[in-house]
Amino acid sequence: MRSITATMFVTLDGVVQGLGRADEDTRGGFRHGGWGPRYNDEVMLRELGQGMAKAGDLLFGRRTWQDFTAAWGRATDGNPYTTLMNAATKYVVSRSLPDADAWQNSVLLRGDAVQTVAELKAQPGNDLAINGSASLVRSLHAAGLIDTYTLLIHPLTLGSGTRLFDGPAPMAELELTGCVSTSKGVIIAHYARR
Predict the structure, then answer these.
(1) Given this model, what pLDDT does residue 79 score?
(2) Which residue, 22, 29, 72, 170, has most beta carbons within 10 Å?
(3) Sheet bearing 57-61, strands edge to edge
(4) Where are the domains of the chain?
(5) Phi/psi class of residue 48: alpha, beta or left (left: φ > 0; alpha: ψ in -120 to 50)?
(6) Distance in angstroms (rounded) separating the CA atoms of residues 67 and 60
């Protein structure tokens, strides 16, 4: 059985929307996009690199897959993250995508997210890593399918935006398995589901 790790960039008030750039995700009139990059540093890059070195296959919701396809799928910058992302098998969960041909090594998982991911998790193969895809993470969290979490908790509040656990989240106890602080005040906390 595969394990699933979710890595999420989150503010102190739980917002996960629009991390990378102003126009990344303006749903609901969100105007705070691009809040994350100013907090990047060598510690964060090292921690993320260690996580990516462990990851086998990638798992995405439709919206994040489409965003990553545009950002990484056409990049030829020699960046080791680009090479890893393009070479990895990428599973995209969607009811509306006609196909997953826009990004090499992508596989469309059509249908109910919980059911299709549970079936994928039960198969032999590489472990799965989710980066972003908040609604997918919420669904899989509620179903008890996520084994470990890496939360990059940023020292700011935004007051509005999509939150990691918007609405009621089922109770889940997590055990802190590691924690690192960056030079810019981001706490990188690693949790395992008990």
Answers:
(1) 73
(2) 72
(3) 106-110, 90-94, 57-61, 128-131, 4-11, 148-154, 187-193, 174-181
(4) 4-193
(5) alpha
(6) 10
